[in-house]
Each structure stands twice: as C-alpha cells, then as structure tokens.
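Follow-up to my post from last week.
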Amino acid sequence: MARVPQVAFLPDGRRLHLQDGPIDLVVEAVGDSDAVAAAYVAAARRLAGLLDALCGELSLLRTPVGPSTPVPVGAVARRMHAAVVPYAPAFVTPMAAVAGAVAEAVLAAMLEAAPLARAYVNNGGDIALHLAPGERFSIGLVDRPDRPGLFGTATVTAADGVAGVATSGRHGRSFSLGIADAVTVLAATAAAADAAATMIANAVDLPGHPAVVRVPASALSPDSDLGDRLVTRAVGPLAPAEVAAALAAGAAFAEALAGRGLIAAAALHLAGETASIGRRFGAADSLPVPPARRDASAARLPARHAADPIETTRGTVHA
Amino acid sequence: MSTRDAPTIDVPASLAGKPADDKIRCDACPVMCFIKPGMTGACDRYANDSGTLVRVDPHVVLDRTLSQGGAVVPLNRGGGWDGTLVAGPHTFVTAIGAGTTYPDYKPAPFIVASEVDGVDMVTVVTEGIFSYCGVKVKIDTDRHVGPERSIVRAQGEAIGHVTTGEYGSQMLSLGGVHHLTGGSKKEGRATCDALLELSNGKPVELTIDDGVSIVVEAGRPPVVNGVAEARMRVGCGSATIGMFAKQWHGKVDEVVVVDDHITGVLSEHQAGKLLGIADTGIKLKGRRSTPGRYFQVAEPGTGWGGTNISDPLSILGPFDPKVARPGLTLLMVSTTGEHHGYYVLDEDLRPVERELPPSLVESVARIEENCEPALCTVLFMGGAGGSLRSGVTENPVRLTRSVKDALTYVTCGGAPVYVWPGGGITFMVDVTRVPDNAFGYVPTPALVAPIEFTLKLSDYAALGGHMDHVRPLAALSGEEARRPVAPRLGNPWPFAPHAAKRSHG
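User reply:
Got it. Predicted complex:
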C-alpha cells in the first residue's frame, strides 16, 4: 500500500501542514500568491519519498560519526552528516540533526521553485528560515512544551545570517543526555542549529547528581541511536548553585561553538533559570501575551513544537 | 535500499512485528521503530500496549450491536479486518482517545461521515482540553455537610465550595478556572486530580471547612464522616406528614417528622386537620411557618433529619396541660425513617420512650421503603466555546450558532449533554453516562474530555466545515486502533432523530 504524506492547509488558509511518519511540518511562505502556491506544491513534492530515502540509510545515520564512517548518499542524510561532523570525536550521530535537515531540505525546494519574501518550515520546533533583505522573524521560546510559557524572544533579521532555529532538551520527543529543560540555538542552517541544540543540551548536566534519574536509552527505545548511553528521565529538586553550575557548563560549551562559528546564539533554560550567549534573546515580558493564553498556548502540542514563531503562539484562542 | 536490507538490523524480517522480549516493530511508516511495552515510537502516535501495537489511547467506538463489556479490538492493518464494526450507522465514533490537534490549527483528528436514513451525517470527533471546567456534585443526604460557601478541599487544597442545599441534597461546586489555574500550582494540581478522578467515576475524599469529611463517587452513596448514607429522604417533614397521615390515623395520637428544613407536626398540619385529628398540646421549638410546619427546630448536623440532635425530645417544649393528657402516644421519626422513637405521656405529661408498637412498625418501614437510594451524582461541566471549534470549522461562531439552533448535536463520549443557553458551548454531562476512563488531563492543568459534534453533512458544509477531511465511517476499518464499547443503556443514540434524543438538552 502506497504511503503518501498528509498534506492540508491549516484553517487559517495560509499555512500548510505536512506530515509523514514522525515528520510533522508547518510551512508558511509569504510573497506573490503564485509564488506561494508554487512553493507549497514544491514543499509537498519534496516531502514525498523523503522519509523513505532517509530510512534506506537509517542504520548508518544511527552510527556515531568518526573518521572511518562513510558519508551517506541521500541529500538530506548528507545535510545531517555535515551538521554533526564538527562535533566528532565526541559521541554524536547524524540523527542529532534529522529534524533540522528535513526542514532545511523542504525549505530549499520551496526557494528553488519560487521567489519568496519570507518562509519557514517548522519541523516540530526545529525551524528553517528564509528572509529576503529587510524582512524579520519573531520567535518565542518555550522551555517546557508540557508547561507552556514564553521565557524569551528572539528577533531574526535578514542581515543576521541565521537560517536555522532549533530547540532541544529533556522534555522533547528525543532523549537527552543532559538535564536542560530547553536549549534554543540560532545558527546558519537548521541542521546546524538542531545538532548544536542537541549537543549543548547534553552539556547542561550535573554528572552523578543523585536527583537526576537516568536510564539506558536502549531500555526505552531498543533502536535508539544512543544505544546503552544513560538518558535523563527525571530531574528532582536542584539547589540554585547546582542549577547555575549546570547552566554554566552548557554555556561554556555553547561559547566554544560560537567561537568556532558553528552557532550565532543560544539560550539555555533549566529549572526556571536562563543563560544565554549571543545577544538576541529578549525577555518574555516584552510580549503582549495575556497569562491565560500563555497558559494554553502549547499544551499538548507535539513534544517538539517548542519554539514556534510567535504568531502561532499568540494566535491561540483559549478553548 | 530498504530498511530490511540494511546491514546492522539485528532481527530477521521473519520476526518483524513480534521479536522476543515483547518489543514490537511498528510498520506504520518506514522508520519501523522497535517499541518496548508501554512506550511509543518516534512519532508519539503508535505505542506498544502489552505486546500489541496500538494508536496511543485507542479510539473508542460505540457500537450499537455490542453488549456491555466489548473486547478491545487490536490494531489491524493489512486487510485482515472484515470491517463489520464500522459497516453502518450502528457505529458511532466517540472522541475518547481521538487525540487533539490543540491549539486546533489543524482539523479535528477524526471527521467521520456515515449515512443515516438517507441523510449524510458528519460527526466531528476531537478531545477538548478544558481549562474552563469543573464538576457539579449532588449529594443525596440531609446531613449537614458544611455551611453554604464553605471551602471544599482535596489533599488539603481548596478545590471548590459548598453551594446551595437542594431537595434532599447538598450541592458542591468543584473546580472551575479559578482553582485550576488561578491559584497556586499545588491548588491547580489537586483540583485537576480531584476533577479527573470524579469524572472517571472514582471515589474522592473531600473535607469541608467547618463541616464533614465526605467520600464522593459518582453513582455511589456518599460516605459522610465514615458512615455510608443509605437513603435519600422521602420528602421534607411536612411532606412526610402529608404522605403518611392516613396511615397513622387511629394508630397514634401525634407524629413529629424531624427535619432540619421543615419539621412537620401531624395534629397541627393541614393533613391532620382534614382527618379530624385532635390537638395534643404539643409544643415545638423553632419558628412556626404555617400550621404544623416548623423551621429551625435545631441546628443543622449529621443527626436526626439533618439536624444536630440525637435526642428528638430536645426539640419539644412542655406539653400544654390544658390540652394534653396522660397516656397520649407520640411517634417521632426522621424523613428517611432511619431514626424513630415512640413515646407515651406519663402522669406529669412527660414523654417516656416505649417500644414501637407493631401497628406503627409498618408505617416507619413504609417511609424507608419510599426513600430512594442516596447517591452522589457528578456532572462534568466544560466550555467548548473557544479554539476547539476551529477543529470543526473554519468559521467557529457558526458552530456555536448551529449548536444553539439544534442543528448540531453535541455529545461527550456518546453521552447526551445539556448545553447551557447563552454564549459559548458550555455543556454538562452526567459522568456515569460516559464510557469508562474517558477523561484525561494535561499538566496545564486542565482536563481532557471527549466531545463530538454530529450534524448533517450539508449543514456541515454550510458552516464552513473541513469538508476535505471528512472520511466515510467504513474507511476507519483497519486503520486505527478502536475499542468498541456498547452504548450506555438510556443514552439516546446520537444518530437518532432529534426529537428522540433531545430529552437531555
């Protein structure tokens, strides 16, 4: 039986929703109406077969990247590989960048099809952005998809050279080796942002701390690319100094990545505290979001819809 | 290259689907996750439920032809399922486990069409997240549970209050947005827990400030301070006099029905007058309302007839020596017949307790047998007026109007609801009419409740429905995990003609 991606407009008639297996994309393009239509067709076409191609190389994509590992064949798989190679020899598999790479590939197909003023592909919180000169995006940061509330904002302009925003943490759909509630990264590509968010979230950690419950990833998900590595399942109460120490570890790692040009900025969030590197994260309080709406905004969103563009969050009407 | 050819896959294709150690392989998409029992795959949509691949929260299908206690239908892809369960309008798809697309930027998870008597009907199935919700609890007891406006607590947290006393019942109003999200985190959690348990028909222990500790469970008797209530009163004290006056006539000189609200006195009551019953010189404490009817004979409590008394004589003053006579007989009884005492006046006109004569045993038993069993009833109340509607239509206010115009029939897990007049789609449902464990929660905190909107396909198109997402009932056949359950006895069938099912609002 042929399996085709689900393609539908969202009720606002502006955004396109594409879904296939674990890939769940919200796509929006802004521009000339013919261009937008062409871009949407291109997005849907690009997604068809994309998951199958990835799965054809799945075992390689789940293998840690090292000097002797082969470069994958598929276009999306190569984006994933390229995004994680800078982290070797530390443990990392191309899967750390899968969501961002998929978003990026779909956005690339849209831009190839038509000229667009602005566009984004949001793959469950890992977002590929396109901004024509003079355009900008506002991004709201949500640390806990299960306990929504914006902890910060970011504005990205065309001049920033940022085309990727990604969020990772222990509450997401994927497992984390660290204890961060959320790490949001701005980087030159979505795949790069995705990989960096994963790695920085792993670095926000308190190794051996008794309040942190860890379980081998394989015990939860037999085919996890993390194998028997311990992933965080629960974090008990932490002292303020411990929170600060964990954030400092992650921030130092993030600073190093920024120094190497791998990321533009990062916001790290743990137990209500935020550390950021780079300059562009504003306070959530500057947003005109009434508390009741904030409360409702991300409830039951799929786990990784963490950082959706603000218009999504604000447009929510309380049920 | 397919996954199965990949070099490092450790399980031969022949074992795919059911390898050892209970993990199963999902074939819903080419990722083909191995899923451990109790876990979901990468998509969070499919799960391993004790070795069986299911959609998370299997979808509950009300099947008109099944008897109570139908089995779980396992997920069955690949044509093995014969489709009989969803063959026709004898199946109604409920929203339980449908999932939600909150905040509803997508069409509702299931929009199902089925043809009923030649008219295409559409049921839009979703699970709503109700930040605005609560339960109204009716407790059939005359016992004083606590003063009106007293705080009701669960786990020590304020989750609601005592509201009005109603006929034979004490009412509690629990939850609501102020307790769910307007107070402390702990208050919100305790409120959400209590609402969830009550809505799913589980017992919850509540304490009432300046009142009792009470265990409430939908469809079960209340347990007040550790004592299960058996009966609801037959009527107020005055009504009891009216109902049983004839049966007492000639067997006893005076009857007092003790009731915290209206205590009745046979000889003074209109019913006694009509029977020609003579004055007895009895003197009641309290405030006389009309002849034979007294308010406030004692303080409210958990004793006789919802008063605080254990000795009924304490509500009597001395008998009038000009009227009363030694040997005069007196029955005192509560409105449930649970408490009773029989007295004879001595030479000093003081009542002395005696054994209830056989001729009166029957009349006391008659009060008891006319009492209905005391129950707790729990109505879930939620507001679906907000964004949930956009899962149904691109033009949400049209759904509201359609509900008000009775073109759209709203159900909660297939159970009929009462839709409050006025703005929004605020409904109430008797939780005992909803299939088991239909309610869930999100940590917001808010409750998740099923809600279905049933209407004619043509009406659905007219209100701007997601026509491109309507799927025929038969198309549900092997695709989703479904749990067929028999409809609750007494619930109108959702596809029945409107006149037949409108009895509940």
